[in-house]
Every structure is written in C-alpha cells, then in structure tokens.
Specification:
single chain, 329 residues, alpha/beta, UDP-N-acetylmuramoyl-L-alanine:D-glutamate ligase, 3 domains, seven-stranded mixed sheet, four-stranded mixed sheet, 41% helix
C-alpha cells in the first residue's frame, strides 16, 4: 500500500494521504498486461477489507487473481514524501514484517503446478529482503520453473533500508543462488560490486559496467542482462542511458539512444523498463529494438503519477519514433 502526501508536503505537514496499491512485481505485471499478456501475481493478501481493496485494485490494473491467497490481517506499506528541488523524495517502509505475504508459511504455494501454466516468472530482490522463508520459497519456485523449462527473470533491486546493517553480506548468498537459476537479469555494475562483492579494476562507471556485466553473465550462465544508468541534470531533468547485454554466443552490449526528460513521478519507472525488456525478449525482438522500447517505456512512466506504468505498446512505439508531441485530438 502506497500512502502519499499531497503535493510536495512532508508527513509532518499533512493530515491527508493518497492511497494506492503497487509494488515492483505489481508494476512489472501491470506493464505486461497492457502489452497483452495474462499477468498473475503469486502472493498472499490479508483476509479482510484491506485485502479486498488491494485485490480490487490489482484487478483494475489487469492482473488476474488465480494465484492470490487470502490469509492474515496485514499489508506491507510505504509512505512517500515527494521531493522538490534540493530535497529528494523519501520513502519510509512500514508493517512489512507483519504482512500476510511475509508470514505465509513454506509450502503455501503450489510452485510445480504454477510452473506448468506460465511462460516466465519475475522475481524481485525486494521480496528477498523479507525473511528466510520467503527467500527459500523464491529459490524453490525458480527451481520448479527451471525443471519445467520456463523463463526465470531476476531483478536485483537491492534496497539498503530493507536489508539493514550488514545487508550486502546477508543478501549475497541468496542473490548468487537466484542468479544461478536466472535466464534474464536486471542489474548494473553497482549490483555486481556491492551485492556480489566483485572487484573492479576500472575507474569510470561505463568501464566498470563493461568489465563486470560480461563477467557476471559468463560466471552464472545468464543469457541476457539489462539495466540503466541515470543522471540528474542541473535543471532537474533526468537522463537515462539504457543497455542490454547478450551473453553467449553474442557477448555484446546494445545501447538505446540517451534520453533526457522532465520527471513527474520517479517511482516505478525502473519497473516499466523491466516490463519493456520482458516484452521484447518474449516477443523475439532484436536486442536493439528491445532496449530502445524499454527505455521509452521508462521515460513515459516518469510522466504519470503513481508507481504503475499505464502506457500501451503503441504509445511507447510512438515515443520511440516521434518523441514528444502536441495534443492528441
């Protein structure tokens, strides 16, 4: 549950919060639903009116409830204070440990059965930051998918605030296990250096990326790794450099043209990028088209309030080919 202060107010300044329902997995699935896929979250929601509201909102986003369990009483939350100028936006997490998802027991989900009915599953490092039961479940689900010959997608998404002190050491063995099972990975060189503990001899960010991403792909036998480099311009606009690395036998980087754009809402734009990469990979597009499409999807997500991407494939293709336009009538 996202609880957002109005405008650019601080929590200490407001008595009103805007409620929406999101999360990295929800955002990725919502983007894919708009591209025409059947998108099904595998999760547990509270068995009460809060769970009813969350499920109703997921349905409105086009997500199917086939693998949603109902148990417990709590939903994870985060509070968003939108930044302005020199003050960055701030996210404060709450109630995650008590959430129905976090407290679901091992064996709660029929992973082998689900694996037979899907083409690909997206896993997120934010979920790995829950507890050992969730982490073991993620590994078991990924193993069931590999056994069924399906695609495993792992999005590193390391959040220091969720792992706490010594977080890199806690996360590392689980990340390595998920990477060993993954076919498609979302990450950049910072994940390789800090989460995986890989040394880098290069000094510039671009050189470290060129050094560490191929090494990661080769070590874990990953077919595709994709990610972005973000910059913030002096006028407050953001710039995005998006890449896709293809492993054996290609062993080559593909880059989208750098994009610079104003930002309305920053949160969830990385998930829009992930949904674009997934769409291109599942559709059999060329790597060049896939990374350009994903970059445009991320750019458009910055223009919409809320976490969830709402752009259709046609709108994203138009942004790729025509750039910014006037009013559509």
């Amino acid at each position: 549950m996202r609880l957002e202060t109005p405008g650019v107010r601080l929590l200490s300044q407001t008595d009103t919060l805007q409620v929406s329902y999101s999360g990295s997995g929800v955002n990725v699935l919502s983007g894919l639903s708009r591209f025409g896929y059947s998108a099904l979250p595998v999760t547990t929601l509270p068995d009460n009116p809060i769970g009813d509201a969350a499920e109703a909102n997921l349905r409105k986003l086009g997500l199917l409830p086939d693998h949603i369990r109902r148990e417990g009483a709590n939903l994870g939350m985060y509070f968003l204070e939108t930044g302005f100028g020199a003050r960055p936006s701030r996210v404060t997490y709450a109630n995650r440990a008590q959430s129905s998802f976090n407290t679901a027991g091992e064996g709660a989900y029929p992973f082998a059965q689900i694996a037979q009915s899907v083409d690909a599953v997206h896993f997120c490092g934010i979920s790995l930051a829950m507890n050992d039961t969730v982490r073991r479940s993620a590994v078991a689900f990924a193993e069931a998918l590999k056994a069924a010959g399906k695609t495993v997608v792992f999005d590193c998404n390391y959040r220091p605030a969720l792992w706490g002190e010594g977080g890199y050491d806690k996360a590392r063995p689980w990340y390595k296990r998920m990477l060993s099972l993954a076919d498609l990975v979302m990450m950049n060189e910072n994940d390789a250096m800090h989460v995986l503990g890989m040394p880098a001899s290069a000094e510039s960010r671009a050189e470290r990326l060129a050094e560490l991403i191929p090494e990661t792909a080769g070590h874990y036998a990953i077919g595709t790794i994709a990610g972005t480099h973000r910059g913030i311009e002096a006028d407050g606009r953001h710039s995005l450099a998006a890449f896709l690395y293809r492993g054996e036998p290609d062993r080559r980087f593909y880059w989208a043209e750098p994009l610079t754009f104003p930002v309305y809402d920053r949160i969830g734009a990385g998930d829009a990028y992930t949904s674009g990469i997934l769409h291109g990979e599942l559709s059999g597009w060329t790597p060049d088209r896939t990374v350009r499409f994903a970059a445009a999807a991320s750019m458009l997500a910055h223009t919409v309030p809320g976490d969830t991407p709402f752009s259709s494939e046609a709108q994203i293709v138009r942004a790729m080919t025509e750039g910014f336009g006037d009013i559509e009538r």
